[in-house]
Please model this.
Amino acid sequence: MGADDAVHICDPALRGPGPFTSATVLAKAIQEEGFDIIFCGKQAIDDDMAQVQSVLAEMLDIPQVNVVATFEISDNGKKAILKRRIEGGDEKVETQLPVIVSCEKGLNEPRYASLPGIMKAKKKEIRKKTLTDLGFSEVPAGGRSRILKWLPLPARGKCKMVEAEEMTDAVKELARLLREEAKVI
Amino acid sequence: MMRHTEGNTMTNDILVFGEVRGGELKKVTKELVHAAKIIADGNGGAIDAAVIGAGAGKAAETLKDFGLRKIAVAEHEALDNYSTEGYATVLADLIRSENPAFVLLGATAMGRDLAPRVAAKVDGVMFSDCVDVRFEDGQCISRRPVYSGKLYIEITTVGERTTFITIRPNNVPPAEPSGNGAEVVSFESDLAREAIRSMVTEIIPLVGGRPDLTEADIIVSGGRAMKDASNFKILEELADLLGAAMGASRAAVDAGYAEHAIQVGQTGKIVNPKLYVACGISGAIQHLAGMRTSKVIVAINKDPSAPIFEKADYGIVGDLFEVVPVLTEEIKKIL
Model:
C-alpha cells in the first residue's frame, strides 16, 4: 500500500483493552514516533465503541474530526478542510494540523498493492513494542468498567408471509396488516 | 450566572446534554431525560441539563417543564458553530463544577464526537450507543450492542468515576412533562474563538428534504435489486406518501445506485424506526446490524430463501418493481 514504517504494539497484557487503555498506549507510542496527521477508522468492528480516536486526541492535545468523508490539505499544509457525515447532511470542518481523523467509508478508493510494492514491503521491518518498551510498568487506565452479561438478541416472531393467488391481493392484505395489526401506518 | 468552579466530591446527579441543531433541540434530548429519570428513581440525585450554542437559550425553554432541577445555557460567539474543542471545554467545566455521576448524550454525530472527548478530559468512563439503561443492585446498568448487533452486553462502571452514556435515538420513550419549571442559568467558560483549532464552517444539507434516517419513524430502503439509481423513484413515492426517510443497503451503495449518506448498516447509519420496509435487500449481516432493532420489518424480495425473511415480521415474495407501486396505491387508499 505504500506505508514507510510500521510499529506493532504487542503485549499479552493488552488483551481486550478498554478505549482508555488503548488510547493511553497509542498516545505514548505515537509521541515517540512524531506525526502530522493521524488517520484511523471510525470505530472497532467488535465492540463498536468509537472512543479511542477522541480520547487519543485529548491525550495528545490535538483537534479531532470524526467520521470524515472528504479530506484535503490547504494553506500550504498548515490546515485541512474536511467533510464529516452528520444526520441529514455533511458538516464542513476547517482544522489546523496536527489533527486526528477518523475515516468514513468512501473517503477514497484504496490503491491495489503493486508487485514491486509487495516485494519492497517484504524487506521492511515491522518493529514490535511491548508495554515495557513504551515505559509502562502495568496496563494503564484499565479497570473502569465491568461487563455483567452477554445476551442474545430477543427472538423475533416468525415472519408472516403474505400470500395470495394474485400479487395485488397479497399487497392489499399487507397494507391492511400494517394499518390494522401492526398499527405502524 | 454560573461560573466554572472546581467542585469536590461526586454527587449522584445526572447531567443531560441537550443537542441543538438549527436552533431546535434534538428529539433525543427528551429520551435522555426519560433515561435520566430511570437512573434517578434508583439512585436518587437531581437531573440537570446543559444546552450549548446558538439558540441554546430558546431551546432550553422547551425543556423547562420536564422535572429538571436546572438547565445550564452556554451561548458565546465561539460556540455558534459546533467545535469539539469548544463544546467539550464547556461541558468539562460544567462537570468539574457540578460533579454529576452520570452524563447522558444522544448517540448522534455530535454526541458520539463530543462524549469521548469530554470523558477523556474528566478521566471518566464511557458506554457508547446504548439502547437501554436501568438501575439495579446499586448500579447503573447500560445495555449496548456489540459485534455488529449480534449480541448485547450489559456493562457497568467500576469505582467512582463520571460515567458517560450515549443513547441511540428512538430507543427510549421521550419523557413526559412533569414538575415545576427548571431554573435556567447561563454558564460561562473561559473560551476564545482563536484557541479553537478545528471548527465547523458550514452545514451542507442532503437534498430531498426527507426526515433524517436516524430519527425517522418509517424508512423505505432499497438494495442491489434496485438495478439503477433512477429506480429509487418508485421507493421515493412510497416514502413521500408515508413521510418516511429513504435508505439503501451497502450493496446498492457500492453499485452506485444510492449515496453513502443514506446507507443503513454497520458502515452506514444505525436506525431504529417503527417500520422498516426492505425492498430487494437480501439481509446481509452488515445490513441487519443497522436495522434489526426496527419495531416492524417488512421484506419484499423475489428470493423466498433471502435471509431478510428470517428477521422480518411481514414478507412478500415478489418482484419489488411490481409490488412496491401496488403497495403505494393500496396504502394511499387506506390512509
About this structure: The mean pLDDT of chain B is 93.
